[in-house]
Specification:
This protein has 183 residues and is of the alpha+beta class. It folds into two domains: 73 residues; 103 residues, no CATH class. It is built from seven helices and six strands; from the N terminus they run H-H-H-E-E-E-E-E-H-H-E-H-H. A hairpin with a 2-residue loop joins strand 4 and strand 5. Helix 1 runs antiparallel to helix 3. The protein starts with a helix and ends with a helix. The mean pLDDT is 78.
Amino acid sequence: MKFVDKMIIKVFKILGVLAIFASVAVYLIAKTYCIDYEAYGIIEKDLISISITLIIASILFLVLSFVFKENARNNLPIIKLSEDGFIDNGPMETGLIPWSNIEKFTIYEVMNGYNSRKYLGVWVKDLGLLCSGVSATKAELIKANAASGAPPVVIPQTLIREDLNKVIEKIMLYKKEVSYRSR
């Protein structure tokens, strides 16, 4: 996701939260300081309608942030291959993982009751190198995956929209071409 997209999403979220606080503040301040509503030309229905309007605005901003995030994510390729390495734009957004740090790609399957979910698993040689390029929260998630025996980086098949065997085959073919060209 581009920096500009992330900033717009943050602005929508902040506006949504601020609108919630504003609606509560307007109602509480008016209720507290406007004891004689008729003297100020305000009736309680006006206060309630102002608060409801602000709550609706906050919901709108929060929904817009979610819609914009999904739209921005859908416009990005989840996986991108470059001469330098494998680029992960999935939920973990680990970014560029150099070819030299990639050990292997696997299909990782998780069973949930009767359902199973498949993920593209990326195993790395140096976990510290991978974690150094992401936020502390993402680094902890990556380490937790690795500690549980799962690949450190997992990308859901639902986001890839292609058979994972074919994806791994294409990645390995590209990696082989890149290593051949660099000789």
